[in-house]
TrEMBL record:
<feature type="domain" description="DRBM">
    <location>
        <begin position="193"/>
        <end position="257"/>
    </location>
</feature>
<keyword id="KW-0694">RNA-binding</keyword>
<dbReference type="GO" id="GO:0006396">
    <property type="term" value="P:RNA processing"/>
</dbReference>
<dbReference type="InterPro" id="IPR014720">
    <property type="entry name" value="dsRBD_dom"/>
</dbReference>
<dbReference type="Pfam" id="PF00035">
    <property type="entry name" value="dsrm"/>
</dbReference>
<dbReference type="InterPro" id="IPR000999">
    <property type="entry name" value="RNase_III_dom"/>
</dbReference>
<dbReference type="GO" id="GO:0003723">
    <property type="term" value="F:RNA binding"/>
</dbReference>
<dbReference type="GO" id="GO:0004525">
    <property type="term" value="F:ribonuclease III activity"/>
</dbReference>
<protein>
    <recommendedName>
        <fullName>DRBM domain-containing protein</fullName>
    </recommendedName>
</protein>
<dbReference type="InterPro" id="IPR036389">
    <property type="entry name" value="RNase_III_sf"/>
</dbReference>
Amino acid sequence: METGFDITLTPRPGFLEFVQDFVNRIHLPDGSSPVIRVRDNAYKTFVQAFICRSSIPFIGQGHEDNKGFELIGDALLNVSACVYMKNCYPQAGVRFWTGRKQCMVANGQGLKDLAEFYGLHNWIIGPPGEGGKKQLPNIMESLIGVLCELYSFDATDRFLQSIFKEHADTWFTNYPLEGQNTRKRVRSKSPVNHKEKLSDMCAKYGWGNPRYESSQEGPPHAPTFRAVCQVGECKVCGNVASTKREAEQDAASQMLA
């Protein structure tokens, strides 16, 4: 089965160009970008980024895998994503930052998309798919770790901030909620999470977090609920609902209307 490298880890034509294109976003202290040459240590380090544990049975023992770089890359992605969220949405809260950060760095979400964007599948060492669904995202993490190893944390963070600026809005649209919140939304009677949508809008425009006040109406054996949503000085009262959760959703919907 054809793979990105042969048994001696000689890359197919085009790997040098791939690496050079990848590092062109890195800016050295003099403003230039690194120049990659075959047989340089930097080139060999980028090859190592593609050696997963699942690759070893295919290429044989004696090669270092990418686990160390993957660990560093994973940490850097999380730190840089947090910095990006706080800078872009300074008025939002930790829950908002954490939820959006997750979709930027999760294996099956933003990280998967980045791996596809850079065409990492072209350079897999070993049979494609041997490493499972996490193989390409893990290689993406390893490449980030290699950048830090070769060119410093600050240079790598600037690299990631430019990536996030281009792709984050698409990820927020494609992966709007964390897994737990997504499951809650599926169970909800409303197909749209109006509270989440309102929170996103408030964070985007710096309006602060929406506040909700709920009141219970009707007899104890058959209570109903009504909620008031407040954003800044604006207050909107929602319709009567059978649960507090639904009442707050309706109030958020009225605020968005």
